[in-house]
Design goal:
- The protein has 413 residues and is α/β, with parallel strands linked by helices.
- It is built from 15 helices and 13 strands.
- Helix 1 runs parallel beside helix 2, helix 6 packs across helix 7 (216-227) and helix 9 crosses helix 10 (288-302).
- It is globular, with a radius of gyration of 22 Å.
Length: 413
């Protein structure tokens, strides 16, 4: 048999094994995946329901919820567990169109050979009556990644793939965003988000974790550190949405009603693309295919009334956050007791690095750094550098905390 025929035989065997390796799904789950392997010129359809997984080669019987494209070598490495889907996506060895969450979830639906657990999984965590969609990968100390306004856990994919070499990483969709529940009566302010993050930690029985947040996620991470410092080991704050000091539009923004977001409307694709590119100092670093995925995801999610309400309410709350006074953000920031790293970006148009002087005044013990020639989402624009900064900072925090951790372990024993 020639090498092409041998490779195709391996691939077909891997697809045939999927039904036996299927881990099942929650009631009501019904997703159709199209897998395209361009180098061998074939496509497979995989339909997953609570009753099982069905594989069909060749033509399609259903409109796919997601299409995944890659090459045969990458596909076999994924099936053997030599590579995770997030790693393949980060290395541009795999593309996906359609529902991005389902594309990432595919790998976690099947056991690896010899009964091994999948290297990553997307799962729903129940916090009260609400679902928080979560991506978990890696092993080690727990680390939580929280996205920014209008984004989802996908904004951390590349950085998560690097951090997962050392940590058990959880990237979540905040309530109101991504694939999490989107209540229509929620306040969508930092304390409300923080309570859900702590409830999420309770549900997964995570006693303490490093918490990393970008933009709105950074503001939520700070609130978690203030509300429950005993649950936080260290804070990594990437261009966090700290309180604005100069707020010329304050009266206008206060009058805007987020409830209007319930009314059907949408942003034109060109508008979303321009806003996305404005987040970067150098838009060329964003792969065009990835940009298309991000825009598609935003438009798909923003089609929900709950998502529109969450977006507008969160934006309004960030802008109206009181900077000073008894309950102001900066006086409260001075009470933050957990080690914190603030990462700013030189070309951030939303949260300029000038905010660092306010942090220095109110929280002088915090470590601060500015990434040169970078925009508002350093975990996207500079994933390796961002992951490196976080790893070095958390390694120092862990070294300092080691004696106290050992003492707690002795008391527990």
């Amino acid at each position: 048999m020639d090498s092409h025929g041998s490779r195709l035989s391996q691939i077909e065997a891997a697809f045939r094994s999927l039904p036996d390796r299927y881990l099942g799904a929650d009631p009501g789950f019904d997703a159709t995946f199209h897998i395209r392997l361009a180098d061998v010129g074939h496509q497979w359809e995989v339909r997953a329901t609570p009753h099982g997984a069905r594989v069909r080669k060749g033509g399609t019987s259903r409109q796919p919820d997601v299409t995944i494209g890659t090459d045969s070598e990458t596909w076999l490495r994924l099936r053997e567990g030599e590579l995770s889907g997030i790693e393949a996506f980060s290395q541009r060895l795999l593309y996906a169109r359609g529902n991005l969450d389902l594309a990432v979830a595919f790998e976690g639906l099947f056991r690896l050979p010899n009964g091994r657990e999948p290297r990553q999984r997307v799962h729903d965590v129940r916090v009260g009556r609400r679902r928080i969609s979560t991506l978990t990968l890696g092993e080690g100390r727990d680390m939580l990644l929280i996205h920014g306004l209008g984004a989802t856990k996908a904004s951390f994919f590349e950085t998560a793939a690097i951090l997962a070499r050392r940590y058990r990483v959880h990237a979540i969709d905040l309530p109101g965003f991504g694939s999490s529940d989107k209540p229509l009566t929620a306040p969508y302010d930092a304390p409300w988000f923080a309570r859900h993050v702590l409830g999420w930690m309770d549900a997964l029985e995570i006693e303490r974790a490093h918490v990393v947040g970008n933009s709105l996620g950074g503001r939520v991470a700070i609130e978690v550190g203030l509300a429950a410092p005993e649950r936080v080991t260290g804070l990594g704050l990437l261009c966090p949405a700290v309180a604005f000091v100069k707020r010329g539009l304050h009266p206008i923004v206060r009058l805007l009603r987020p409830e209007l977001g319930i009314l059907p409307h949408r942003f034109a694709r060109g508008t979303v693309e321009r806003q996305l590119m404005d987040l970067f100092a150098d838009p060329s670093v964003l792969d065009p295919s990835v940009a298309d995925i991000v825009v598609d995801e935003f438009q798909r999610i923003y089609g929900s009334a709950g998502a529109r309400l969450a977006f507008l309410s969160s934006a309004r709350n960030v802008y109206l956050d009181t900077p000073f006074g008894d309950k102001g953000f900066y006086p409260r920031l001075s009470e933050l007791s957990r080690p914190a790293l603030f990462v700013w970006s030189s070309h951030d148009r939303l949260i300029p690095p000038g905010f660092s002087r306010h942090v220095s005044e109110w929280l002088p013990a915090a470590e601060q750094i500015v990434i040169d020639a970078c925009g508002h989402a350093p975990q996207v624009e500079r994933p390796e550098q961002t992951a490196g900064l976080l790893q070095r900072f958390f390694a120092r925090v862990e070294a300092i905390e080691a004696p106290a951790r050992a003492a707690r372990a002795r008391r527990a024993a």
